[in-house]
Design a protein that fits this description.
This protein is of the alpha/beta class and about 400 residues long. It is built from eleven helices and 19 strands. Strands 5, 6, 7, 10, 11, 18 and 19 form a seven-stranded mixed β-sheet that branches. The protein has a six-stranded parallel β-sheet with strand order 14-13-12-15-16-17, with helices on both faces. It has a four-stranded antiparallel β-sheet with strand order 3-4-8-9, with no helix packed on it. Helix 4 packs across helix 5. The chain binds 5-beta-D-ribofuranosylpicolinamide adenine-dinucleotide and zinc ion (ZN) (2 copies). Keywords: Acetylation, Metal-binding, NAD, Oxidoreductase, Zinc.
Amino acid sequence: MTVPKRVLKENVPMQRNPLGCFQVIRCRAAVAWAAGHPLSIEEVEVAPPKAGEVRIKLVAAGICRTDEHLLQGCFPSAEFPVIPGHEGAGIVESIGEGVTSVKPGDKVIPICVPQCGECSFCLNPESNYCLKSHFSEPQNLLPDKTTRFTCKGKQIHHFLWMSTFAEYTVVPEYAVAKIDPAAPLDKVCLLGCGFSTGYGAAINTAKVKPGSTCAIFGLGGVGLSVVMGCKAAGASRIIAVDINKDKFAKAKELGATDCINPRDCQKPIQEVLTDMTGQGVDYSFEAIGLKETMIAALASCNMNTGICVMIGELDAGSEISLNPMILLTGRAWKGTLVGGWKMRDCIPRLVSSYLEKKFNSDLLITHTLPFAQVNEGFELLRAGKSIRSVLLF
Ligand code: PAD
Ligand code: ZN
Ligand code: ZN
């Protein structure tokens, strides 16, 4: 019996069996079988979406440092084997029962902080932290506590409900943002995490004011997006800090006024920044994920009105010890998840701003690789040679 196949926009085949039910799709995915091992490109089975779920054909996926934390076994609550990846863009292939906000053929970005729209945090206009987020509910399995991925007879875990290092993935409807059909998916995939996180950390979390002074620790895809956000907010001095001087040219191109390598300094970087600015910067951002740079970023901002935003992720179980006097004089220490955006509402708007050329996140893409070279993408990240590598499926 032949399987009826309907071809959707952009040639996405809908995989239905003769009874009209969606079929399991066999496709390639990058599987991390255990921590500390390279990814392995495998043939996996991707089950059809259940009620309230969406199956997406990925077109492009960026590599973020958070995926590296996962591969090294440092991500809280992750479980192996797992399909990593959380910065992707694709096309809806099929939808489960009850899904109304997207349909097959729609261009989408899966979002790593969901927006259920119903919990008290989703209803709070000041918050983007949905109670269905991974700190509340592990996202190693889909919300019904089962996986849609199998490989060689084994169940494979999801990552943040995204698992974008696969040709097809299944995510809950409230973790999908529908975007403008004109958007180039190989570029706007960065809006799924890195760009939105950094840009939003400046605009939404710190609320950088015009004429202010900012310091950004770490000039990867996230930190450079903070530089772009500070510039867009009208900061007059943007000091970029990194131990890799090869990042400085891009930082300057994106708006940094000064670049500093702490290893070239005779004093601790917080003292250097305080000397440079008088009382410390108005806003500091940590986009690395190290205890010492988190403390240095906090100490670099003005002791009275300074705001320090923590973006980098520490290894699972890490703790920071701090003299509370550092906060007593009025400094504020804040964290941000994907830049404070309510992602289902805001990612489509950010995509529109991208299309209107209000920012150029393409400047963060240093490498474009075929999906099969995913390990090469991680090598470039580890060697400090890439900002963002985008994998194409
Ligand atoms: P990246 O590895 O591309 O960039 C990190 C940068 O930090 C590199 O340029 C390094 O050279 C630099 N660096 C390393 N050590 C030091 C040091 N001691 N002093 C100064 N600079 C240093 O990472 P990324 O930009 O993809 O991600 C940055 C962090 O942000 C990482 O911890 C990631 O997990 C986290 C992140 N958080 C969120 C969130 O929602 N909070 C989202 C996305 C990424
Ligand atoms: Zn919610
Ligand atoms: Zn990320």
